[in-house]
Amino acid sequence: MRRSVWPFAGFTIALTLSAACSKAAREMEPEPAASEAELGEEVNFEGFPDSLGLLINEVEQEAVGAEAGEVEAEVREMFDASGAELEELPRAETPSWDIPITINDAVERWLEFFQTDGRENFTIYLQRAGRYEPMMRAMFRDAGLPEDLVYMSLIESGFSPRAYSRARAVGLWQFISSTGRLYGLRVSYWVDERRDPILATRAAVAHLRDLYEEFGSWYLAAAAYNGGVNRVRRSIRRSGSDDFWMLSQRRYLRRETRNYVPKLIAAALIAKQPDHYGFLDIERHPPLAYELVRVPGATSIDVIAKAAGVSVEEIRELNPQLLRGVTPPGGSYDVRVPPGSGHRFALAYASVPPGERVTWVVHVVRSGNTLGQLARDYRVSVSAIRAANGNVNPRRLRIGQRLVIPRAGRIPTYTRTAPRTRRSAPARVEPQAGSGPYITYTVQGGDSLWAIAKRYEVTPRDLMRWNGLTSSRIYPGDQVRIYVGSE
């Protein structure tokens, strides 16, 4: 039997679910299809005494159909044998939801799972919710959408901006790259805005609004978010029904999508009343708070951290979208710093010489390269290279792979390395320096001036001017100066 519960102003219902949590978690598969009557049956709450704050218990389902007087008498017997006036007792605040809450076997299985096998992870998710839920609720509220949709992020990523799935979905809202780009999220070698908590949530709000406008149901919108719009469209067309539960029972949807909505409902039930489900004394992370500072492109986060007087890890935590430990080259970039550090950063950063603001170069792996050799060539440690590249496996370097190489202090001035083999050197004139910080790039096999310019978001003409080239011809081993902080 399915019971649908909707919260209305002045009318809240507390559901006490007492499914036997001692049972081992069963496979998350819907039960055999119920009849039409069972699917449409709802609990009728009319006639129940509002003053009792009535708790409806799964163990006593027969009470749902009993007379109001009998129910009141039974509740009084359970809670106050003396017949004292229960209305005067303090009453706990009852949560309400702004998404439809349906309780059925599939939901109860997820409730049981989260309280047993999934308990440890769910506890972590509730802790992380403290950091991101307030920001998310504000965005959904401003868009006029149900705030409880935030719990989709809980089941998508466990409120982790660094979450990554086998389907290559990324971030708090698990966008694949194509959908992320469709909603304005930049995905490049330098930055992945699917991991940006603010920008990704803004994109999720827009995406869910579009899905609801098409399907007119939050259950179907959630199913389409998980399984894809076209799959839900086909399921509706083939079945002739737009009821999620009917589509699920008759298996028109994939198994993962059939489980998605029950999982969301169970997560929302527990997240809003964790004590009731045994999640006691959850220490929620403090809400996300930050100040924005604007820096030139290709600014290293260790320089930002030093100027702000905070740790590098704090900058990483606030800016998980930065993939290479630097801001993307070409143009300025807004970076989040801890509250109260923005003013200090502005004063300290202004005194840093431009050449010291960029403390890295990019190396494209060639045949025979090893991390040890690169560490010697660039005079850094192997551990520093690994840390700057997500602990890259030294045994799995690929030809053409790009590595960020941290550099201490000032970036070297332009030097030209003699090429290994070529017929003649390109003609040169006096270089014209650009403005701001720069990097020195070593030309690799297959490189062209146009490809390098595109990669660093500058023009081939700029590269020729900065390096005194009269021809666009370049050769492996050449070193090219690139002013990445210039507008």
Topology:
Layout: E1 3-5, E2 14-16, H1 36-40, E3 55-57, H2 68-79, E4 101-103, H3 105-115, H4 119-142, H5 151-157, H6 177-182, H7 197-215, H8 218-227, H9 229-239, H10 244-249, H11 255-272, E5 291-295, H12 301-308, H13 312-318, E6 333-337, H14 342-350, E7 360-364, H15 371-378, H16 382-388, E8 402-406, E9 439-442, H17 449-455, H18 460-467, E10 479-482
Parallel strand pairs: 2-3
Antiparallel strand pairs: 1-4, 5-6, 7-8, 9-10
Helix pairs in contact: 3-11, 4-7, 5-11, 7-8, 8-9, 8-11, 12-13, 12-14, 17-18
- Could you give a short account of the major beta sheet? 2 strands, antiparallel
Helix content: 25-40%
* CATH-defined fold name of the largest domain: Lysozyme
What would you say the CATH architecture of the largest domain is? Orthogonal Bundle
Share of residues in strands: 5-15%
Provide a descriptive summary of the structure in words.
The chain is mainly alpha-helical and 487 residues long. Helix 4 (119-142) packs across helix 7 (197-215) and helix 12 crosses helix 13 (312-318). It has 18 helices and ten strands. The longest helix has 24 residues, at 119-142. The protein folds into four domains: 3-96, no CATH class; 113-277, Lysozyme (Orthogonal Bundle), CATH 1.10.530; 291-356, no CATH class; 413-487, LysM domain (Membrane-bound Lytic Murein Transglycosylase D, Chain A). A two-stranded antiparallel sheet has the order 1-4. Strands 2-3 form a two-stranded parallel sheet.
Briefly characterize the structure.
The chain has four domains: 3-96, no CATH class; 113-277, Orthogonal Bundle (Lysozyme), CATH 1.10.530.10; 291-356, no CATH class; 413-487, Membrane-bound Lytic Murein Transglycosylase D, Chain A.
